[in-house]
Amino acid sequence: MSRIKTIITAAIVLLVTVISMSNFHTVTIDLLVTDINAPLILIILIMLIAGFITGYILKGIIDYRKDR
Question: What is the pTM of this model?
Fold first, then answer.
């Protein structure tokens, strides 16, 4: 089972890397009081990391509640 997870994780990392590397242009993000200009690759990677962290935290909460 861990080998399948490793293969899936590697495929996702490869896919995100290819997509991110093809998006170097700058985008503007409109917030409530300011605008942020950043490369799209940076935005994609920040959102990916935020998603992984959120999933990790939620998995921990779910596992904690199951053990209780």
Answer: 0.64
Helix H or strand E encompassing 21: helix 2-21
Q: Tokens 């940076």 sit at which residue?
A: 42
**Cα–Cα distance measured from residue 29 to residue 33, given in angstroms and rounded to the nearest whole number:** 11
Which range of residues forms the domain containing residue 41?
2-67
Query: Looking at the 3D structure of the chain, how many domains does it have?
Result: 1
Helix (H, G, I), strand (E, B) or coil at 27: strand
Report pLDDT digits (tens) over 9-44: 899 889 878 887 787 889 999 989 999 999 988 888
- Judged by DSSP in three states, 26 sits in strand
Query: Which residues are 55's β-sheet partners?
Result: none
